[in-house]
Here is the input.
Amino acid sequence: MGKTMTDVASPAIVPMAEVYIEGFHRALDTVARERRYLAFLEAPPLPATRDFVRSMIERRNPQFVAVAKDEVVGWCDISRHERPIHAHRGTLGMGIIPAYRGRGLGQQLIETTIEAARRQGLARIELSAHADNARAIALYRKVGFVQEGVERDAICIDGRYCDTISMAIIDKANRDAWRATA
Ligand SMILES: CC(C)(COP(=O)(O)OP(=O)(O)OC[C@H]1O[C@@H](n2cnc3c(N)ncnc32)[C@H](O)[C@@H]1OP(=O)(O)O)[C@@H](O)C(=O)NCCC(=O)NCCS
Here is the structure.
């Protein structure tokens, strides 16, 4: 039988910190190994994950984890693009381990992370989702993302092609403020 609300602790959403890196790596690996949702089929090695997280913290990129019973059960991050002409943009990634899905945690995580991105002045947040990931696409639409395109046969996992959907959300106030300084 599936887990119910009483089986799992209520997670806290907290900014990423050094102490969560190994837990984040485990959660990323768990979701990647499902071979259905992410651009990875397993997590990158721990040292590479550590470098990624440290660089995100250094660059003050929004990055949050959901923590329950001292275990990282989900994450959401937005990487600001590097080139000057793209520096108003960020790319969002997220995931939640299976037992904690479908109870609103995704919405809490993404709203917290988008709010942090707004405070950092990002004008455009974009992402890519597998076209058959109905739950993720429903969540992204719900918080304001708009579909911009379809990449046909963009991924191939275990001999099966799947399209990917590109989506983005524009923050109009940050868009105007950015233009004034760019
Ligand atoms: C995608 C993910 C982050 C969503 O988080 P979540 O906590 O499970 O989602 P929520 O409980 O916040 O629900 C999101 C919405 O999807 C809807 N939904 C749930 N299952 C659905 C399904 N099978 N089909 C369509 N919509 C679905 C929910 O109804 C909800 O909308 P509502 O509250 O308006 O009804 C999470 O499920 C996850 O990590 N999945 C695996 C990894 C992944 O897909 N990462 C994203 C890669 S782009």
Q: What stands out?
A: Helices lie at 21-32, 46-58, 105-119, 134-142, 172-181.
